[in-house]
Design a protein that fits this description.
- There is one protein chain.
- The chain is mainly alpha-helical and 523 residues long.
- It has a single domain, classed as Orthogonal Bundle (Hydantoin permease), CATH 1.10.4160.
- Helices cover 71% and strands 0% of the residues.
- It contains 21 helices and no strands.
- Helix 9 runs antiparallel to helix 15 and helix 17 packs across helix 20.
- 55% of the residues are buried.
């Protein structure tokens, strides 16, 4: 056995156990959006009634798409570009598009973790003072008044961001089994333990019941609104890490006899359970904040950066032993984001390995190093928060969701590979896939994703996102999302190796995307 978990002559690494894969998959799915996006989305779209479309979205789109990505990864045992190329040579552009999306997300995702690291320290002594919002954008981030103009770098962001990248690259350099798997086996149980303690403490606060009533009281009339159903499907797509190649990559390290549908069910329901737990903790805390300030919950409800770095510090300053609550919250935030960041960068590293034949450590140094440099250069600056806001919005709406739509349409409609992939999954899965899986992926998922795109574009052209100037959005919003697609297409046009060596660097495997005779008959 080699240091990276492979055997001599074996061309691809393997997970050490099914639990290792599941923890890694769950770690990728559970991220910042579970904590600061789901509670607000549920609250704004019918409260307790939202759980019905959310569950339907999970069953009809989230889990089928998750199983599909697992199946593609395990069947072809390659990263997204190489796996899609196995299905059809032109389809590889979707994989490189997803790699470009991962590159963009990784560059700004890491800086949020750096902020979280600093806020762990700020919790001691509640250093944000009486105005957490002014502290965040002024004292800490030193945000520039003109978005897009870099006037200098913020040392308080630079150093923790550098540290985050060093740790991420070390874990990736250690390999799938010794690095990613062991890290997730430690971090995910720790995350659940820390967050459970945080939720229990939140439930003991005055006003917690009011906050939970605000979240879970059902507004059944909301189910008649199309926007609520779009929000439910959108939350599922963005939460499960299915639109940008992560699960294809992770599944490529599975053994040939691994259970696919059963693993998807475990990962999917674990992710949704954590989202509901996060909703309970967040709204119990917001209920306390509303009780303390003597205002309705809807006046303090927030999401995203405002929830994590403004609302929660305000709560922490108002409660007994607030520093401990802050420590648990920001530690949970960093851990949840960190496991997701590792999975995002792994997609880029694995794709470059498969494309060039590079060994893991050189690939991590080159690819991870480049990603880290871009991340620090842009997001450690005084305009970093503006770059982050625009890039995050547009790469999510017109990168992840659009790539998922194109992937499903190509596989289901153009290549018509769903029956073949269904048979492959059923060979080793505890839960067999039936006609419902074909209907969900062939009809429901593409229609919902397509409608999401239309609805999102309509809203986009009605007014500029967050009031930013058109020039800024064209460059750092539309430009980033469109650039990811262009990069994906251009890379796919570069000729592949045809010398008969493995794309992943192993001996004896077919080159140029071909399959040997012994593998043609295997699903």
């Amino acid at each position: 056995m080699t240091n990276d978990g492979t055997r001599p002559g074996q061309s691809r690494e393997r997970w050490g156990s099914r639990a290792g894969f599941l923890f890694a998959a769950i770690g990728s799915a559970i991220g910042l959006g579970n904590i600061w996006r789901f509670p607000a989305v549920a609250y704004q779209n019918g409260g307790g009634a939202f759980l019905l479309p959310y569950l339907i979205a999970l069953l009809t789109a989230g889990l089928p798409l998750l199983i599909l990505t697992y199946t593609v990864g395990r069947k072809y045992r390659k990263s997204p570009p190489a796996a899609y190329r196995e299905m059809a040579k032109p389809a590889q552009f979707i994989g490189w598009w997803q790699v470009a999306i991962c590159f963009v997300i990784a560059t700004y995702y890491a800086v949020i973790l750096a902020w979280g690291v600093r806020y762990i320290g700020f919790s001691f002594g509640e250093q944000w003072g009486d105005d957490p919002e002014a502290f965040l954008f002024g004292d800490f981030l030193q945000a520039s008044e003109t978005p897009g103009e870099i006037g200098g770098y913020v040392g308080g962001v630079f150093w923790p961001l550098l540290a985050i990248w060093v740790v991420v690259l070390i874990i990736l350099a250690l390999g799938v089994r010794r690095g990613i798997e062991k890290a997730n086996l430690f971090f995910i149980p720790s995350l659940v333990a820390f967050f459970l303690v945080l939720v229990i403490r939140a439930l003991t606060l005055d006003g917690a019941g009011t906050g939970l009533d605000a979240l879970f009281s059902p507004d059944w009339s909301a189910l008649g609104q199309g926007s609520v159903w779009i929000a439910a499907y959108g939350q599922i797509f963005f939460s499960l890490s299915v639109g940008f190649g992560i699960m294809v990559t992770y599944a490529s390290y599975l053994g040939r006899r691994s259970d696919l549908s059963g693993s998807a069910l475990v990962a999917g329901f674990a992710n949704s359970s954590f989202e509901i737990l996060a909703g309970i903790g967040v709204f119990a805390t917001l209920g306390f904040m509303a009780h303390t300030e003597g205002v309705p919950v809807d006046e303090v409800a927030a999401d995203g950066l405002g929830l994590a770095f403004v609302a929660f510090p305000t709560v922490i300053s108002s409660m007994p032993a607030g520093w401990l609550f802050g420590l648990l919250f920001f530690l949970s935030l960093v851990i949840a984001g960190f496991t997701s960041l590792v999975s995002i960068v792994q997609v880029i590293v694995a794709s470059v390995q498969d494309r060039t034949g590079m060994k893991r450590v050189p690939a991590v140094i080159v690819v991870g190093g480049l990603t880290a440099v871009v991340s620090i250069a842009l997001f450690a600056s005084d305009s970093g928060v503006h770059f982050l806001d625009a890039a995050d919005h547009f790469i999510n709406q017109y990168g992840i969701a659009m790539a998922a739509l194109v992937f499903v349409v190509v596989v289901a409609w153009l290549l018509r590979r769903l029956p073949d992939l269904q048979a492959h999954a059923n060979e080793t899965s505890a839960v067999r896939l039936g006609q419902w899986w074909l209907v969900c992926l062939g009809i429901i998922t593409p229609l919902v994703l397509g409608w999401m795109m239309v609805d999102s574009l309509r809203a986009e052209f009605e007014e500029n996102y967050e009031g930013y100037s058109t020039d800024f959005l064209v460059t750092y919003g539309w430009g980033v999302a469109g650039g990811a697609l262009v990069v994906g297409i251009l890379i796919s046009l570069i000729p592949w190796r045809s010398d008969g060596t493995s794309l992943s660097g192993g001996p004896g495997a077919p080159g140029d995307g071909a399959t040997t005779d012994s593998r043609k008959g295997r699903r």
